[in-house]
Amino acid sequence: MTTGKLYIGRKVRESRLAHGHTQAAFAQRLGISTSYLNQIENNQRPVSATVLLALAEKFQIEMSELSAGSSDRLLSALSEALTDPLFETYSPSTQELKLVVQNAPGLAHALIACHQAYRRNSEQLAGFDDQMSRTNAFAEPTPYEEVRDFFHFMDNYIHEIDMAGEKLAQSIGIREREAGAALAAHLEKRHGVRILKTAEGEDVLRRYDPASKLLYLNAYSPAATRSFQMAYQVAALELKTEIDAIARRAEFRSPESVEICRIGLRNYFAGAVTLPYQAFLTAARELRHDLELLAARFGASLEQVAHRLSSLQRPGTKGVPVFFARFDRAGNITKRHSAAKLQFARFGAACPLWNVHQSFEMPGRIIRQLAETPDGVRYLCVATEIAKSGGGFNASRRRYAIALGCEVAYAGDFVYADGLDLTNRAAFDPIGISCRICERANCDQRATPPFKRRLRVDHDLRPPVPYRLE
Questions:
Q1: What's the burial of 361, exposed, middle or buried (CB within 10 Å: 0-12/13-18/19+)?
Q2: What values do phi and psi take at 195, rounded to 5?
Q3: Can you spell out the DSSP letters for 15-50?
Q4: What are the DSSP calls for 215-272, one per residue?
Q5: Residue 372 has pLDDT above 90, yes or no
Q6: Buried residues in 365-402 as b, exposed as e (16+ CB within 10 A)
Q7: Which residues pair with 208 in a beta bridge?
Q8: Which of 97, 156, 239, 289 has its CA 20 to 30 A from that of 280?
Q9: 3-state secondary structure 426-466
């Protein structure tokens, strides 16, 4: 969804105001005329390569941040919202949408929020008319969805929390000793918190008693999980002020969203402690993003490693832009983030042609796939099934799959690209984001027709899908 011209007027204006410059002074620093700067700020003219270099050199603005990131995600979400038949009389161009995202991101977020409310009402009315007649509980996104969107549009990177986690990891020597031992010693030394086992049969990962300062951890949990839960408790004890400030700035709609966000931020801190940014980024490059080797080196789970790879978005030291998602067996996306161009559907299940679904058929194996989305972008996709148990033969086992990937331009940085023919277009499977917005006309795995496409039904002809697209 990119073009050769770059309109970044809002970001240029924000940078100028942040430095306290008038248009004349700012233009002089950039070596351009005031009228040209005025046209740039109003998105009447794109920025040139010369101006981009001047912005990077004189005002420490990263060019990668000007051309990608949150704007791509917001543009994708807005584009998907406008494919709804509700807007069938209006088909904005990509350039129109870009101008809205770049100049009025607040309006774009508001429109997406309105569309979410509309979709939620429509879906609930379809099956729960009687319930909807008594309550308006479905008029707004759930607290969980609201918090998920918060992290998504923050690029899944929270700078203050990430830096705090890395600082703690360095101070307690988490790379030189076993993470669980280091965190347990820190909790006891600084907070007087002792670690005990949960009672036999108690089905919890973590339970903290603030009165006695006892932290109970499930003895049947893997070591990586226990370390993560200890780091979570450190966040609860040490980062209350910072976490409350971030949650307050998010301006959530409900107290429940605030509480869920607090949990999310503590989880983020736990990941930043057990997988500290610079050390993890260096190892990821060295090991070519081999999930199993990274998990072994840091004493982490595959999911923790894959999730952390998706958050390597620190300005100045960014990792490879990857997408990450977690799926249940019904195809529901329970975690999602993308620093790549691929953006996950906000409604419905994932494309059935994606290799993530095959991973449930081959537990324990890492499955590779070369895939191409309808916009022509090609990806290296990796998926694997994961099972978690609370212990014992009779304990239930939670099964889900994780997916990780990058655009083919970065595939050489991944061990999973070895032996694959990245130059052969026939090697790439045609996948979509979801049937609701996928324009592929000849997909025999299609579950529902796409919006804004008329159907043609031939009673004398029965193809795999019982209709064709006009």
A1: exposed
A2: -100, 130
A3: HHHHTT--HHHHHHHHTS-HHHHHHHHTTSSPPPHH
A4: EEE-TTS-HHHHHHHHHHHHHHHH-HHHHHHHHHHTT-SSHHHHHHHHHHHHHHHHHH
A5: yes
A6: ebbbbbbbbeeeebbbbbbbbbeeebeeeeeeeeebbb
A7: 215
A8: 239
A9: HHCEECCCCCCCCCCCCCCCCCCCCCCCCEECCCCCCCCCC
Amino acid residing at 37: L
Short-list 303, 297, 270, 300, CA closest to 282: 297
pTM: 0.72
Instruction: Write out pLDDT tens, residues 391-420.
Output: 777 777 889 999 999 999 999 999 999 999
CA distance 39 to 7: 10
Asked if 170 and 279 touch (Cβ cutoff 8 Å), the reply is: no
- Contacts of 23-29 with CB under 8 Å at 24 or more apart are 29/54, 29/58, 29/59
Distance of CA 234 to the CA centre of its chain: 24
| Tokens matching residue 389 | 């148990």
DSSP annotation of 209 reads E
**Check whether domain 159-274 has CATH 1.10.10, yes or no:** yes
Which CATH class for the 9-67 domain?
A: mainly alpha
Give the model's confidence band at 225: pLDDT under 50 very low, under 70 low, under 90 confident, else very high.
very high
Length of the chain counted residue by residue: 470
CB atoms within 10 A of CB 271: 23
What are the domain boundaries of the chain? 9-67, 70-140, 159-274, 322-456
CA nearest neighbour of 327 among 257, 275, 395, 398: 398
